[in-house]
Specification:
Blueprint: H1 3-29, H2 36-60
Helix pairs in contact: 1-2
Length: 66
């Protein structure tokens, strides 16, 4: 049970980073000829963070089968 605050804090940090990436992607997307490689990298990072957030949220839910 002592892991919950650290998991919650990690989720919060990841959500902040996810929002920041969203803003950065939007700004880069406004000029599609700017840097497509960077835009693609940022989108992949945003998806990775989204998956990690979901995984951590799943960790907070107790295993009902146990």
């Amino acid at each position: 049970m002592d892991k919950i605050p650290s998991i919650s804090a990690r989720i919060l940090l990841l959500q902040i980073r996810h929002r920041a990436l969203d803003t950065e992607i939007t700004e880069l997307g406004a000029n599609p000829y700017q840097n497509q490689l960077l835009l693609q990298r940022l989108k992949k990072e945003k998806l990775r963070i989204k998956d990690e957030i979901q995984w951590l949220k799943d960790e907070l839910i107790p295993d009902l089968d146990a």
